[in-house]
Amino acid sequence: MTKDVVNKYFLKHYCIGIITENVNIISYILEDVPVVSLTVSSIPQMSDSEEYGNLREKTSNFDKIMVRILDQRCLHFIIQVSTPEYLIEYFSRSSRRSAVRSNRQYLFLPLTADEIIMNPDASSIFAMKEMAVMPDLVIANILTINKNVSTCCISNTEENNETAEIIDLDIDCGNEVEIEFLTHKYAAPNPEEEIKLGTWTPSLGFSSEVNLYPNKMNNLGGKYLKISAVPDYPPYTILDLNSTPPVYEGVELRFSKEFARLLNFTFQIVVDDDAWWGEVWPNGTGNGMWGMVAMDTVIMGFGATYAWLENYPYLDYSLPYFRSSVRCITPRPKQLPGWMTPILPFNAVMWAAVAISLIITVIALYLVTNAVILLLDKRYNKRKYSSITNNIILAWGLLFLQSPSEDKTPQYAPLRHLITWLMVYFLLVNSIYSGGLSSVLTVPRFEDPINTVADLAKSNMLWSATTDAWVYSIEEATEPDLAHIVHNYKTLSEDELLKRVFRGDTAFAVERLLGGNYALPSYVNDDTVPFLRAMRADIYSGFPVFNLRKSSPFLESLNMLILRLNAAGLLLNYEVQVVREFVGQRVQLALAQNDQVSTDSGPVDLQIAHIQGPLFFLGFGLLAAFVVFTSEIM
Fold first, then answer.
1. What pLDDT digit, counting tens, does each position of 490-544 carry?
2. CA–CA separation, 38 vs 22, rounded Å?
3. Is residue 84 located within the same domain as residue 200?
4. Mean pLDDT across the stretch 422-433?
5. Residue 616 lies in a domain
6. What are the transmembrane regions (predicted)?
7. Residue 57 belongs to domain spanning
8. Other CB atoms within 10 A of residue 275 CB
9. Are residues 95 and 222 both part of a single domain?
């Protein structure tokens, strides 16, 4: 019988796993099949603790063995033990730590000992909570045998020196053996209900049209399941669990409704108001959405999460359902103060060029003047412009279009030509400056906006959100700008983040969906959006996924639905509908337009801010003159 099952159902994958208390089944039945086997004398009972570190020594050792067995990539298991309930607990718990992430098929065989046949207790097994993640479990029970069976079994043992299990008796023995295959209904109502799949006899083999492993996921019959989400993260999730009926809306929840419709199940949303996404700890437990998925409290969880490496050892991920990116909502650039008006017409490079030209002017005047004195007239006007100080004063005068007075006009042609060309040069500089100043006085100037990762790093501005998950994708980045902003990231509470919106010293991480809409936290609202603007470039992008427990039977159906909805364009349509119906586009549009001048203010009256710069320079000049004059008197 076991050979027939193997040949019909188990040969398409890499290997077959066998866990048995009778070693002979390995060599007698499966001699030509790749096998990973484990022979046990007894199975220690699984500890009630969810923490791997708190397991008893025997339990911990057997758990490690089970993890190694599961890591061999066998997707079919044949089990023949006296305590199958214990082993099922290990399959469920150990699969969370296995590196192999696939749903497995199980065949439980009856055990014979001292001519006594012990069929697995189907009702007890099917009532276990672990059946929720083990839909493909089949139990083989021996129903009828005649009195000659034991004789044939003993004869085989004596002649061939190997024990042929009663379920694999040769038909030449003439025994009437009937084996019944049972599985659990899995679907509602009564998912633990026993379902007879068919029978097998040595003479006829399987009864007609037997399918030991039907796809139970096609129709769950309205089965009640739990799903975890973050409390409120529009437009991904919009929840109101206190209303009647509860409000389940959002892009991911609309997908979940479609998934429930496809598999025909009903669901309840479970949230952790304190931990939100939460985390999974190395001991196998956790909190928040991720913790509930890892501990089998829910069948899946979501909350705009990516396929992060941090949780991958404890969870499984679906296919991505669309692209999203992370940007920052930054403080709006402030208008530059009026005292900076005289500085703004030139940028730093231009001011550096002006400074260098002044230095060159001073040097040129000094060299030409001394050359004239040396070559033409050693008494030249009492050595006018021959000192560095005189040349500096002359150069500053030329910069401000102040020509030399008549008594200081150069007498020799070389010096006259030099000063004339310098006056032309500085006239052009002043003309350019005047044009820039007119532009500054006409169009208000603001601080440089933060549009890119380089801008964010250069500003050295703190950026923040309510969880560390925002930097999971870039915390190992080696690019200098990314490494710098990871260092500047800080996790804060929503209340603290709201305060920082008005302070204008912090950027806020947000997610931008495929359709261009933002997943905005509560502290980005109608009251705060006038103080904020969105970056134009992404910090990083990724692909959101659904989170499931390892080896989840729901993963295949979930992935197929994702592919179908993406092909139809429905997920993008969900985003547009949710934003329009529940989120509202007012804040979204405000963020998009914060870079633009919405209205033309027209001409404005001259204000003190317009002349703050000249007044500042006038005050500085008067103060400097007073200090110099006082020092000369004293």
1. 999 999 999 999 999 999 999 999 989 999 888 998 899 989 999 999 999 999 9
2. 10
3. yes
4. 92
5. no
6. 348-376, 388-405, 417-436, 615-633
7. 2-214
8. 18
9. no
